Amino acid sequence: MRTPIMAGNWKMNCDNEQARELAAAIAQNAGDMQDCGVILCPPATALTMVQAAIEGTNIGLAAQNMFWEEKGAYTGELSGPMLRSCGCKYVIIGHSERRGRFGSVADDFTAELQKIFGDSDASVNRKIKAALSYGLTPIVCGGELLAERRAGQTDSVVKGQVQAAIAGLSAEQISPIICAYEPVWAIGTGEVCDAGEANRVIGLIRETLAEAVGSAIAEQIRILYGGSVKPDNVRGLMEAPEIDGGLVGGASLKADAFCELIAVAAQVGE
């Protein structure tokens, strides 16, 4: 049985005091949760503030991104050792808002995001290797654009992203990784992928992992769904057998809503 996870990705929201208050409220209600893993992913400026608020609880801390080098002349970047020193145990890698695969805005801005943030399959792979080397657990994201889904390319796109992400990694390195299927067209749009279809694609991700590491290890890897996860749709998603939790955006910015998601995931996972 895979223990579910609810990870709250706060994106570019919350100043330090807001982050402290939100983390404290979540910790008060879900800090001793045993049946569902809870991870908070605040902006980098609030990492130490959130770590202090969740100290002594079962809640884990994640960064939203990292660079692959340990140190050097990389202005504005954060390294694995820096994240570890803030208390991070996890790091999101390859989110579509950093890959430039942001399907709810115009195509020209999608291309511009790619230029700005620059994440590609190759850089995602490099960041994963660095994260593992520094003792951080990667939360690796992937998913298709609406145009790719309409063209019947969902399976090939997602499978290709998974294969590129784990290229050159051993089974031992791959086994602790957390994956997240995030159909780009459902991120921040209010649209949600049908639970049955999300389950099917996550099953494809697991099959792709099994090709690399064998079915025994692949069955242990937790794969989350991300894309407008809310209290009114979480139960259907969590009841799907392949879905092991959620990478949650907007709903994680409200303590009561996020704790409701956690409670449902824990209940379904029992």
How would you explain this protein's 3D organization?
- By secondary structure, this protein is an alpha/beta fold.
- It has a single domain, classed as Alpha-Beta Barrel (TIM Barrel), CATH 3.20.20.70.
- The protein has 13 helices and 8 strands.
- It has helices at about 15-30, 45-55, 80-85, 95-100, 105-115, 120-135, 145-150, 155-165, 170-175, 195-215, 215-220, 235-240, 255-270; strands spanning about 5-10, 35-40, 60-65, 90-95, 135-140, 180, 225, 245-250.
- The chain has an 8-stranded parallel β-barrel with strand order 1-2-3-4-5-6-7-8, surrounded by 6 helices.
- Strand 2 (about 35-40), helix 2 and strand 3 form a beta-alpha-beta unit.
- Mean pLDDT is about 90; it is low at about 105-110.
